[in-house]
Amino acid sequence: MATDYLEPAARLIGDYWRMDVCDFMQVTVCMSRIQRLFWRLVEECPPTCETRPGHSILLSPVPGEQHSFGLSVTEDAFRRKGWQVDSCSFDEEEDLYLLARENEYQIIGLSICGEPFAPVLAATILKLRRRSRNSGVSIMAGGSLAASHPEIVRGLGADLVVRDLPQALVLAEASVAAWDCNRHIASTSG
Questions:
Q1: What single DSSP character describes residue 62?
Q2: What is the rounded distance in angstroms from the CA atom of residue 176 to the CA atom of residue 98?
């Protein structure tokens, strides 16, 4: 529901902002209304499936990026598929590293919109790899920059680069399945 109607509306508002069709106040009011509608829908239609063991993800925008709606939709979609989801906002960089160090996430998903944040994404990925409790964690990168220029994002160290939410869900499931398979092989051959 959110991916069908609310995400395209939010994307259009972003386009209007970039084209100077809407000013900051109009964008803020529109996005606030879209987010309120989204959270009302989430509240009225909570996820029905239980959290599956071995399916945990940490989601965050790249530190400094100030977008949040797409990550909220992503968080809800993963929960509806039985994932345990933790998330950080743009101003919680230290929390991102703390959560990565204290929890054994299978995937850490980072969202990037603007090309100026590419160096920040690369540095964040390196820090997460050093600090993550799970040394085999898969780093997933998504957001508008990943959708429009996946080659740029791929070159910054992400294991998985996703153009949209359906692809993120598919690649996350495949990553966990591969991780489980490798763990099983290691336990039976040792």
A1: P
A2: 22
